[in-house]
Design brief:
Elements lengths: L1 E4 H6 L1 H9 L4 E5 L2 E6 L9 H8 L12 H5 L10 H13 L1
Parallel strand pairs: 1-2
Antiparallel strand pairs: 2-3
């Protein structure tokens, strides 16, 4: 079992997730008080909400693990509109 403060978890999230993937339990503390645990989800196990989304056809279960390094080295996406314009468009759609 690994104990990590919130700041340690933030600074080394990838390393902590690797511990979790290998079966290690990580206890997260806030001012030395335990507040959460991170534990590995057994392959093929879906949480209740996720299972509902899958059964409704909204989501699909993952087929492979995410290659974090490949994801982090991907070039940033290109948008034709700025962030502010995209937010305003989204808000206007919600109002309709």
């Amino acid at each position: 079992m690994k104990i990590a403060s919130i700041s340690e978890l933030k600074d080394g999230l990838s390393a902590h997730l690797e511990l979790v993937r290998s079966g290690e339990l990580v206890v997260v503390t806030d001012r030395k008080s335990p507040v959460a645990t991170l534990e590995r989800i057994a392959p093929g196990t879906l949480a209740g909400e996720t299972a509902g989304l899958v059964s409704e056809g909204i989501a699909a279960p993952r087929k492979t693990l995410l290659d974090v390094q490949a994801f982090l080295t991907m070039p940033p996406g290109r948008s034709q509109v700025g962030l502010a314009a995209a937010i305003l468009d989204d808000r206007q759609e919600e109002e309709r």
